[in-house]
Amino acid sequence: MKLETYLNERRGLVNTFIEGYFDAEVKPDPLKDSIVYSLSAGGKRIRPILCIAAYEACGGRTEDIVPYAAALEFIHTYSLIHDDLPAMDNDDLRRGKPTNHKVFGEGMAILAGDGLLTEAFHLLSMNPSNFDSSLVLQVIGEIALASGVRGMVGGQAADLIYETREPDRDTLYFIHTHKTAALIRASVRTGGILARCWGYQLRCLSDYGEKIGLAFQIRDDILDIEGETEIIGKPKGSDERKKKMTYPGLFGIERSRQIASGLIHEAIDLLSSFDEKAEPLREIARYLLERKS
Predict the structure, then answer these.
(1) Inter-axis angle of helices 133-147 and 62-83, to 10 degrees?
(2) Rounded to an integer, what distance in angstroms lies between the CA atom of residue 110 and that of residue 113?
(3) What CA–CA distance (Å, rounded) separates 2 from 220?
(4) Residue 72 confidence (pLDDT) above 80
(5) I want to staple 113 with a disulfide (CB 3.0 to 4.6 A). Which of 9, 81, 168, 170 is the partner?
């Protein structure tokens, strides 16, 4: 398969849905503008695409899952807006553009993030006839767990708490698996659950999601050192300046590469019980290991 074609097509579906969704009246205008600014800033849409790919791997029809995939992007975008705030990471650039609070002010950026998070659950709760309400309820619980204090929020809190502290393996693993891997894992699980993929195969999808999520963050850590600001879309070396706890900081770059590579190979092996419909998941895993931004 041609991964680039697949990613472009699925990204296009998600983007079209998002554009249409916020065509509806949202007031006041500065709030809508702030939300749309960050949603349309050119993200890779990895989380929604993983959700779609997992759904397809389990036999689902692509068009059925798009709204649920888009809701995951709402949550991811909210987290980026809040992460960039002066009280958190205090970043000026995101995806090569000024961060939300630099354009709209801190107050509006906070509200845009709040709005995206709550709008995501509104969207998730709009149960279409092609999914049983019990499945939708389970997915809402999964995503809430991954987004909140037991997932992404907990990981971000630990990231703040342990800035400037001496890195250790267990704390670093906690931060990365919660701050980044939790929502990626939930994205994959959402596709599996809505396609009624249960038992062993759902466990494999879950473990696949966690492993590629951790590898994704390790790759981010490496790109912060080796990447170029113009390509990665944010200032190079910001983790080191803020004394963040990272894999290269603890293990060095080469060992970090080896860890990420091992995780990706393990993730691909977990898909051995799936047929060719899971090929996008396999290719996405390889892509995450080699990405430049």
Answers:
(1) 20
(2) 5
(3) 24
(4) yes
(5) 81
Q: How far apart are CA 35 and CA 249, in angstroms?
A: 34
The CA distance from 151 to 155, in Å, is 6
233 — phi, psi (to 5°)?
80, 10
Q: What is the average pLDDT value for the chain, to the nearest integer? A: 95
pTM (2 decimals)? Answer: 0.96
Q: What are the backbone angles phi and psi of residue 248, rounded to the nearest 5°?
A: -60, -35
Average pLDDT estimate for 58-80? 97
The residue whose two tokens read 């996405």 is 284
Query: How far lies 143's CA from each of 47, 62, 93, 203, 217, in Å?
Result: 12, 20, 27, 16, 19
Residues 263 and 211 sit within 8 Å (Cβ to Cβ):
yes
Note whether 146 and 186 are within 8 A (CB): yes
Tens digit of pLDDT for each residue in 189-226? 999 999 999 999 999 999 999 999 999 999 999 999 99
